[in-house]
């Protein structure tokens, strides 16, 4: 908790909109600390300020099943919460589950004003704003203003959970490492290591934030990947998922060790007698492999909110063809090969007019590499 400074600078301390913007952005920063620990719940941050704009309490949702962000912030504020303003990245929940409703906690603490960035789209937990207003608390939903796209910033930090709730399937991030000429391996199949150590360490961060990582049988045979998170303290290991239509995986595969849970998805008629003790799920398939739609439905039913694709070009092509890629993170190394498999295999795109257009949202230098983040753009209407 920080108590000594107002959330706005002296230059804008008299501007209530600037104070709101500073506090919301601080709440977004706090929410990010829960990435990788709160699923299937959202990440949420909360800041409580007194009448002078001084921070008297801060909190974030730290783990699923634990107190929500508002409760942590109220505990930090103590008696100073009475008459204060609470800034929350997501509309306070109005639901009793493993914890009580945050709307009631705010009411009981004597909060007189609540500012939230994103309405809760979950019909089970939503409605907190209406409960607060009914209790006489001034309740404000953030809108875009001269102080920036606050709602968009809060949504970006919670994109996996929001996508899952809104679309009814897990959020899908496709990660790859490639040479500058778009190759993910050399002509002889060698691919270790295209990217540098800084990029590889960053991949473990992405894994730690995902509920599941997915690989195909081709990558499994070529690389025997492990896919567990390394180098991050206290991490909750993601579910490792193998798409293996004909159940060709060897019982000695590294992905079947005890470092993290593993699920092998096979065709409905696959022979799995050699996989005793391995968790297997049978899913519909066709000539191109396991149905991506069926896989995502199965993972969603297991509480998976976010998926990272770590397979090769064929697996990526299947997800792109299914329209099931929400974000792309490419690590581009200053290397040229000239031959070898490209980043993306057949994705059902046969003409330039069908190309999946992307918007680049971030470019970061990691050692010798570039990390490029992009999202699909909505198709233009003609």
Q: How is this structure best described in words?
A:
The chain has 382 residues and is α/β, with parallel strands linked by helices. It is 25% helix and 23% strand. The chain is built from ten helices and 16 strands. It has helices at residues 16-31, 69-77, 102-109, 128-134, 150-157, 159-167, 197-209, 217-223, 292-301, 313-321, and strands at residues 45-49, 55-60, 85-90, 113-118, 138-141, 171-179, 212-216, 239-243, 262-267, 280-283, 285-286, 289-290, 306-309, 327-333, 358-366, 369-376. It has a nine-stranded mixed beta sheet, sandwiched between helices. The protein is elongated.
List the helices and strands and how they pair.
Layout: H1 16-31, E1 45-49, E2 55-60, H2 69-77, E3 85-90, H3 102-109, E4 113-118, H4 128-134, E5 138-141, H5 150-157, H6 159-167, E6 171-179, H7 197-209, E7 212-216, H8 217-223, E8 239-243, E9 262-267, E10 280-283, E11 285-286, E12 289-290, H9 292-301, E13 306-309, H10 313-321, E14 327-333, E15 358-366, E16 369-376
Parallel strand pairs: 3-4, 4-5, 6-13, 6-14, 7-8, 7-13, 8-9, 9-10
Antiparallel strand pairs: 1-2, 1-3, 11-12, 14-16, 15-16
């Amino acid at each position: 908790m920080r108590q000594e400074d107002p959330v706005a600078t002296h230059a804008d301390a008299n501007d209530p909109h600037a104070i709101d913007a500073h506090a919301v952005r601080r709440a977004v920063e706090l929410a990010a600390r829960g990435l990788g620990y709160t699923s299937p719940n959202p990440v949420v941050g909360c800041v409580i300020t007194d009448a002078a704009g001084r921070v008297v309490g801060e909190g974030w949702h730290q783990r699923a099943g634990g107190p929500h962000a508002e409760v942590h912030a109220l505990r930090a504020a103590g008696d100073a919460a009475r008459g204060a303003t609470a800034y929350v990245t997501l509309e306070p929940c109005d639901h009793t589950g493993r914890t009580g409703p945050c709307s009631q906690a705010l009411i009981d603490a004597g909060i007189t004003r609540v500012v939230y960035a994103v309405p809760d789209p979950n019909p089970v937990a939503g409605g907190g704003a209406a409960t607060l207003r009914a209790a006489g608390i001034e309740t404000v939903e953030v809108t875009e203003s001269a102080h920036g796209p606050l709602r968009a910033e809060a949504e970006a930090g919670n994109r996996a959970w929001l996508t899952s709730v809104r679309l009814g399937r897990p959020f899908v991030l496709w990660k790859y490492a490639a040479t500058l000429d778009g190759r993910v391996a050399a002509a002889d199949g060698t691919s270790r290591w295209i990217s540098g150590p800084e990029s590889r360490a960053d991949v473990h961060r992405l894994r730690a934030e995902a509920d599941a990582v997915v690989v195909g049988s081709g990558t499994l045979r070529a690389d025997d990947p492990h896919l567990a998170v390394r180098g991050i303290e206290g991490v909750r290991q993601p579910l490792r998922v193998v798409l293996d239509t004909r159940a060709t995986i060897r019982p000695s595969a590294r992905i079947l060790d005890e470092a993290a849970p593993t699920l092998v998805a096979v065709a409905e008629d696959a022979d799995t007698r050699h996989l005793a003790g391995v968790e297997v799920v049978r899913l519909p398939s066709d000539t191109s492999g396991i149905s991506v739609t069926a896989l995502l439905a199965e993972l969603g039913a297991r509480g998976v909110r976010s998926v990272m694709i770590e397979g090769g070009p064929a697996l990526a092509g299947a997800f792109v063809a299914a329209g099931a890629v929400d974000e792309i993170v490419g690590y581009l190394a200053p290397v040229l090969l000239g031959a070898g498999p490209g980043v993306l295999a057949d994705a059902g795109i046969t003409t330039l007019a069908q190309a999946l257009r992307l918007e680049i949202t971030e470019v970061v230098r990691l050692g010798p590499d570039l990390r490029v983040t992009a999202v699909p753009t909505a198709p233009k209407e003609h």
